[in-house]
Design a protein that fits this description.
Blueprint lengths: L1 H9 L8 H16 L16 E4 L5 E4 L2 E2 L8 H12 L5 E2 H8 L5 H19 L5 E4 L2 E4 L4 E3 H13 L12 H11 L11 H27 L3 H14 L4 H13 L3 H18 L6 H30 L11 H14 L2
Parallel strand pairs: 1-7
Antiparallel strand pairs: 1-2, 2-3, 4-6, 5-6
Helix pairs in contact: 1-2, 3-5, 4-5, 6-7, 6-8, 7-8, 8-9, 9-10, 10-11, 10-12, 11-12, 12-13
Length: 340
């Protein structure tokens, strides 16, 4: 039990250790207690990048399949450095650009000193000194070590754009490619981060997501799969409820299929989400589409009322002259059709 006591005595002090050393210490303690090495719950494939960074819809880091837990004070500046590198593309990012992003008000020397200290802290946090490479004044995430959902999503979209639909008799992998991209995009890039460099990437990825959803839905329409097209739009809105263009596309789809009431309800939901989460009203394009749909709805209502009035004028259902029972019945019918 001497080894057990020795390891146990170290436990209160392991918070400063790199992730890999902490995990090794815990496994060694478990081994000394019962002679059995616990099976990791990680599903990390062999040979896969050991650090996975999730930025779409959430922010999370996994190292060797284990979530990085910030139970104490969150190392805010190192994490800002990591996300800024991701937002700038992850490869060959100029150090001067990163300094301008994170230390805008500092002079050059002070910003560079802050960068060096923060980079050291980030390398220690991730236990990835060699994987955060600085060469020629440019910083890169080693792709053999880092997997980043935002960067992989952009690659998946580029792959989709580079492949055309299959011709009759050929295998069409567009469904698989779209599903793969949809699995990656689980929401906006760093939704709670309002830094300019985060906002730029957020809108770029959202635009690519909307374009991919629209292209796939249009493909479904060409094949007559209108229910699937609607389902794709609705699922996409669930993933990113602030992607206003998706609301417009689905409203137009409802309108084409004669589902006017659904289009009106969707517009109201769009206005509610934008107002509640962003404090803004729908864009001019969205309001104009809604107004056009409303005009169609009103025209249809007037047309129904006029048809009912015409039937009454020609005596359909009338049993007496003006002022009689038939007139009252016709008046009630007209009011019910016109909504009065």
């Amino acid at each position: 039990m001497a080894e057990t006591r020795s390891l146990a005595e170290q436990l209160p002090c392991i918070g400063h250790l790199p992730h890999a050393q902490m995990r090794a210490l815990i496994l060694a303690l478990a081994r000394s207690l019962d002679g059995v090495v616990p099976t990791a719950t990680s599903t990390q494939p062999m040979g896969a990048p050991r650090i996975r960074i999730h930025t779409l819809g959430r922010f999370a880091i996994e190292i060797d399949g284990w979530p990085l837990d910030f139970s104490g004070r969150v190392p805010r500046k190192p994490l800002d450095l990591l996300t800024a590198i991701v937002a700038r593309g992850g490869r060959n990012v100029a150090v001067t650009t990163i300094c301008a992003d994170l230390w805008l008000d500092a002079d050059g020397a002070t910003a560079m000193q802050s960068f060096n200290v923060t980079l050291h802290r980030l390398r220690k946090l991730l236990d990835a000194r060699e994987a955060l490479c600085v060469r020629g004044g440019r910083l890169s995430l080693d792709p053999a070590t880092f997997w980043v959902d935002a960067l992989v999503f952009e690659q998946a979209i580029a792959h989709m754009d580079g492949h055309h639909e299959a011709q009759p008799g050929q295998s069409d992998a567009s469904v698989e490619r779209f599903d793969a991209a949809l699995d990656l995009y689980q929401g906006a890039f760093l939704p709670m981060h309002d830094a300019p460099w985060a906002t730029v990437l957020r809108e770029r990825l959202r635009s690519k997501f909307v374009r991919a959803v629209g292209a796939y839905a249009e493909r479904c329409d060409r094949l007559g799969q209108h229910d699937l097209s609607i389902a794709v739009y609705r699922r996409a809105i669930e993933i990113d409820p602030l992607a206003e263009e998706l609301y417009r596309r689905l409203m137009a789809e409802y309108d084409r299929l004669g589902l006017t009431a659904d289009a009106v309800a969707l517009y109201r939901r769009c206005g509610l989400m934008l107002g509640r989460l962003l404090g803004v009203m729908p864009a001019v394009e969205t309001r104009e589409l809604y107004a056009a749909i409303q005009r169609k709805l009103q025209a249809a209502t007037r047309g129904g009322a006029e048809a009912a009035a015409e039937r009454f004028a020609y005596g359909e259902g009338a049993t007496s002259g003006p002022g009689g029972v038939g007139s009252l019945a016709g008046e009630r019918t007209l009011r019910s059709v016109s909504g009065l």
